[in-house]
């Protein structure tokens, strides 16, 4: 069974589907931060030096043990010469 097939099977369970949808914003922020940093060929240390945010804090953000504020995300985006973009999408799209 592939991961996609497993997810499709589990999404039929309403309790699982709700938990999955509820945790997606956090997961998307983590993925976006890591992908952006890597796309800029930056280490956590380099991003730390550019933003003044401790490397340990960046690590916590990327590990999901700390939830960032919008202001902090903007500082990180600036440090990567990027713009922060927030998107709202219908829940139905997350259920697929």
Shape: elongated
The first-level CATH class is given as Mainly Alpha
CATH architectural arrangement: Orthogonal Bundle
User: Got a strand count?
Assistant: 0
Q: What is the radius of gyration?
A: 16 Å
Tell me what portion of residues adopts beta-strand conformation.
under 5%
Give the gist of this structure.
With 96 residues, this protein is mainly α.
Describe, in plain words, how this protein is organized in 3D:
- By secondary structure, the protein is mostly helical.
- It has a single domain, classed as 434 Repressor (Amino-terminal Domain) (Orthogonal Bundle), CATH 1.10.260.40.
- Helix content is 68%, strand content 0%.
- The protein has 6 helices and no strands.
- It is elongated, with a radius of gyration of 16 Å.
Question: Which labels suit this protein?
Answer:
0% strand; 96 residues; 434 Repressor (Amino-terminal Domain)
Q: How do the strands and helices of this protein lay out in sequence?
A:
Elements: H1 3-10, H2 14-39, H3 44-51, H4 55-63, H5 70-79, H6 91-94
Helix pairs in contact: 3-5
